[in-house]
Design goal:
Blueprint lengths: L1 E2 L20 E6 L5 E6 L1 E4 L2 E7 L3 H8 L2 E7 L7 E12 L3 H13 L13 E14 L1
Antiparallel strand pairs: 1-8, 2-3, 2-6, 4-5, 5-8, 6-7, 7-8
């Protein structure tokens, strides 16, 4: 396993995983300190990992209160090859979040609009800066 320095760029050897349709496993911490893990859709922009959720959900509350997160994504072509990231949520925004979730629906489902939106739901984008990167192999 290799680890790169703080404020890490994703190693070139594993960058293609982030362009795949793989889910990222997002780990946040509850107020009690207990970990909470969710498989989520994601994309990247400007070196940041972007995930999307609905305002008020547990991961939303956790990321607003505690900015440190961990992410793991497995190569869909080789389940023994993966990328792990420790990072910091550097921005939480509702601006553009509806369009973002529609873009993720296109990536993951081939649909132009996100089909599981609930009435009154407010979507949120979380931008995560990778601070450390871990790879296997």
């Amino acid at each position: 396993m290799s680890m790169s320095p703080s404020h890490a760029q994703v190693p070139e050897s594993h960058a293609a995983i982030l362009k795949s349709k793989a889910l990222v496993f997002l780990a946040t911490t509850n107020a009690s300190g207990a970990p909470q893990v969710s498989p989520v859709w994601f994309d990247t922009e400007g070196g940041l990992i972007r995930v999307n959720s609905a305002k008020g959900r547990l991961k939303d509350r956790n990321m607003r209160a505690r900015k440190k997160v961990s992410l793991a994504v497995v190569d869909p072509e080789n389940m023994y090859r993966w990328l792990g990231l420790q990072g910091t949520v550097v921005e939480v925004t509702e601006q553009g979040a509806d369009a973002h979730i529609d873009g993720l629906a296109k990536k993951y489902l081939g649909k132009d609009t996100y089909p599981n939106r609930r009435a009154g739901e407010v979507r949120v984008i979380y931008k995560i800066r990778p601070d450390k990167a871990f790879t296997m192999p």
